Amino acid sequence: MVEDGPEIKAIERVSSPTIVALCLGGAIFLLSLIAVTYFCYRRKRLQRAKYANTDQPHPFRCRRKPTAVKSPAGSTHYLKKSPSPTGAGKTPPGISPSTSGGPLECGIIHPDINEPCGEVPKDFYTTEREISVITPTKEEIETNEKNLQHNVNYLGQLVFKLRYKHEKNALVVSVVRCRDLPAKDPTVGSSDPYVKLQLLPEKQHKVKTRVLRKTRNPVYDEDFTFYGISFNQLPSITLHFVVLSFDRYSRDDIIGEVFCALNGIDLANIEHQQMALTREIQPRSLKIRSQGRGEILVSLCWQPAANRLTVVVLKARNLPKMDVTGLADPYVKIYLLYNGLRIAKKKTHVKKRTLCPVFNESFVFEIPAGGEGLENVSLEFLLLDWDRVTKNEVIGRLELGGSKCTGTALHHWNEVCNSPRRQIADWHKLRE
């Protein structure tokens, strides 16, 4: 007996026109896909060849806008000390990195959003360490040779522009260029200059330009806008420019500085139009010559039995104003010299923001055996101003003992040699 199962039907035959239509559609689709792929590849290749054969910069990169620095009204200010172009800040002598504090807070920068995005010049940079190397031109080489004939005290010129905008209560300072700067890099006979700017006496703002490589005649054309400054405040403001040369491996070299007091400028002109000014760059040491170098109080004790010389650095007074705040960050280095050679070195802690520091630090120097007392021994004191950004400047020096010791220093040294085991202190003027 046959069981009933599912009913099986034969497949209907597919007609030939249907098969032809499916094949034709697939062929058309494949041809279209190949054509689109080839078109995109061709277009991309032509675009690459276009930028490879011309010096035209990338069309989507924007030129860096002039920066604007905002300072709101009142006692609150956004801007703090600007970080060094060389990177992380320096830890002062006598302070460990863990206790020296974090980096200072940077200012809030407000770019000018109304400027159109222009083409990027060949020396476009993204960071100060990625600036392209610029080969000196023939004109620049001739200028450099001419500069060698200038007086050694000539440090070049700074060109800048001023403009005041009433509607925004803003002072616009444009750092245009520098001319005839000295060569701080003797290997290439050039410098890597940049300019720092701040407003005195409040020190509310601090900005800097980019670094330009291997040039003595840098052109910056950078604008800095300082907000929250009323027109009546302008006569009390002084612009302080510092021109430096960037150094990748050590502290940046100070070329010089420029002070521009706005009370000596016709403010009516900068109120209606931009005013261009040129100032000669002055050496930093001029302020020390005009103010004097101050005095230092030291105490010495000679112990012949132990062959030791104890030196106590007590205090200093009447130091020159080294910082734009009218203060200094002094510390003292002490060198022990034997037969004119430095054989030992000590240094005190840094005393921040003072012109009359109190150190009260004692140091013991071991005198080499075989000498007759302190006849071949001398001391050299260097009082320096510590700086986070630039090289520490020597404020003054003092020599006790040796052939160059004269005046009160010689009297003090003789008294120490003739009165062993006695602590003898005296004030001394610091010299160049």
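The above is record 1. Record 2 follows with the same two-line structure.
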Amino acid sequence: MAQKTSAKEKEREFIIECIQLYRDLPALWNVKSKLYHDRDKKSMAYDLLLSKYQEMFPKANKDLKKKFNALRTNYRKELKKHMDSMKSGASADSIYEPTLWYYSDMNFLHDQEMACDSESSMDITQNSDTQNSVEDDVEQNTVCL
């Protein structure tokens, strides 16, 4: 049993090392980075991450992307639970504390995972229609001043 726990701990430590490398490769996760939009840089970054990952899992291949997407998905779920519990007006004692073992290691993604304020497409369409109507009226010289 001790060996099993030890192997699990070693694997977790290794995954955390991979997460730290992932954090140092913004081409893979930072949508605001120019590197993120460069396919060659992104491919080189995945190759670097893959070579690290293959130290413990030699048969790993480009499916490593799926592994990190799964890690991000789990992080995002925990983050959402935490943020929702803070919004609910709950007391400090009832705020959800994430239990994911690598949650704190993935906190560099916090800004990436939080939704930006958005504008409804219905508002944009209505504003566009109103703008087009005003432009049409101006062209026809029927706007009353």
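Confidence is low (pLDDT under 50) at residues 137-145.
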